[in-house]
Amino acid sequence: MNSESLPILPLGADVEPAVLDLNNRHAVELSFLEPERLARMIGDAFCARRIGQVEAFLIAFDQDADYDSPNFQWFKARYSHFVYVDRVAVDPAARGKGHARRLYRHVFDRAATGGYPLVTCEVNEQPPNPASDAFHAAMGFEAIGAAALPGGAKSVRYFARPIGAPPPAST
């Protein structure tokens, strides 16, 4: 089975331990999660999907989510109708297969179907994440702001991609 034929599936309780493990291996980029917080996030998500058993996953919220992330709150203060990609992770063994691109396209499609005009996200500026910067640029995101997060250890850049923008080129 090639990577394009692996289905995009919902996140559920059956894969939460694997999602938690993958997330927490990328805690510098994503932030560490406890099992209860992950379960609540999945339950509140606009889109919570995975590829394969858990080769990759994505969790996104819409503006109505009850979510206390300072990054989500930044978008909520500025936009009335949007989808916010909170986290996406790809297992190192599955990188280069297009999983993140497929998951984002899934979110773009769901946002378009739901009438959302914008998909948003943030990328770490400190510590830097050049691979994520390049990926988001290739997916059509543009920088719209920046912030230092509470505690001062992290700073982020905020990005948005209008739905209805030309789809990113396949690579």
UniProtKB/TrEMBL annotation:
Gene Ontology MF, one: acyltransferase activity, transferring groups other than amino-acyl groups
Keywords from the named record: Acyltransferase, Transferase
InterPro entries: Acyl_CoA_acyltransferase, Bact_Acetyltransf, GNAT_dom, UCP028520
Domain N-acetyltransferase: 6-164
Matching CDD domains: NAT_SF
PANTHER family the record matches: AMINOALKYLPHOSPHONATE N-ACETYLTRANSFERASE-RELATED, AMINOALKYLPHOSPHONATE N-ACETYLTRANSFERASE-RELATED-RELATED
Protein name: GNAT family N-acetyltransferase
Organism: Nitratireductor arenosus
Lineage: Bacteria, Pseudomonadati, Pseudomonadota, Alphaproteobacteria, Hyphomicrobiales
